[in-house]
Amino acid sequence: MSTSEKFQSVFVALAALAGLGLGLLWPVGEAAGRLVLPALVLMLTAVFAQVDAGQVRRARSARTVVAASLVLNFVFTPLLAWALGAGLLGGSPDLRIGLLLLLVTPCTDWYLVFTGLARGHMGVAAAVLPVNLVLQLLLLPVYVLLLGGEAAMVGTGTLVEAVLLVLVVPLVLAVFLREAARRWRGDAWRDAVLVPLASAAVLPLLYAAVLAMFAWQARTVLAHLGDLVALLPPLAVFFTVAPLVALLVAGLLRLPADQRATLTMTTVARNSPIALAIAVAAFPGRPLIAVALVAGPLLELPVLALLSQLVRVRPKDSSPP
């Protein structure tokens, strides 16, 4: 894990503070606002360019843990997100939607890093990635419209257009890049050059998007600092309950230690970049939703780092790859 990966939450916070300073000191809000969505679309293209759909074949030997992961991510977690929002953020509809967007989008990149640190089953972790991506693309509008209730206040057409813009467009661009690289230079060049370049571009683009967003909405953030603090209790509950439930399910299913670690990471890690892109595209007139999503990784990444050590697998306990 690189230095930038280890301290991602710190750099996100610094980008947010730099954006706040810019937005409060100079009238850059309108110009900065135009940069947010393009930066996020480019970032997601870079994320998707690293995904090999063929990895799903690796899951054939571990169907139980894959099935458990899908149930936890796409049934249990959305219901928990709805309960936390309704119970702890009932008076803040924008924060409820921000929390919902964050929690119903399972991670499609970072959990691989932490699964590796925990010595989890990387084949299963990689196989879950394209499945998570496709299912969240299909189900995200359903979750927002059904579980968001009156707090969502967005039309189905608007939400679908936002998903198409920030998920389908980058996905199509990424598939084109991977296929073009394969045809022109071969699989080896694609994996040795294109994928590392895409990986290296993700964090700078994320920081640029966060900086631009906070510069754009600096005065909104300043006016709602107290509201953002209200996000901490539901996030703390989620990052406590989710790993405990994953470990309980792993125990009930008698999963090997490396699959247990993988299940824990795929259940806890969230996809804040995708959630942020959806928020910017679908709710342009409600900036607090997007601002709320930056709080997620500030807490999530330290939790994942701690979990990777708590569920770390001893080599003798690992199942065959």
UniProtKB/TrEMBL annotation:
The entry's keywords: Cell membrane, Membrane, Transmembrane, Transmembrane helix, Transport
GO molecular function, one term: arsenite transmembrane transporter activity
InterPro entries xrefs: Arsenical-R_Acr3, BilAc:Na_symport/Acr3, Na+/solute_symporter_sf
GO cellular component labels: plasma membrane
Entry keyword annotation includes Repeat: no
Keyword rRNA-binding: no
Main location: membrane
Topology of the protein relative to the lipid bilayer: Multi-pass membrane protein
Pfam families: SBF (PF01758)
Segments crossing the lipid bilayer: 7-29, 35-53, 65-85, 97-117, 124-146, 158-181, 193-216, 228-253, 274-299
Subcellular location field: Cell membrane
PANTHER family per UniProt: ARSENICAL-RESISTANCE PROTEIN 3, ARSENITE EFFLUX TRANSPORTER
Family classification: Belongs to the arsenical resistance-3 (ACR3) (TC 2.A.59) family.
Protein name: Arsenite transporter
Native organism: Nocardiopsis sinuspersici
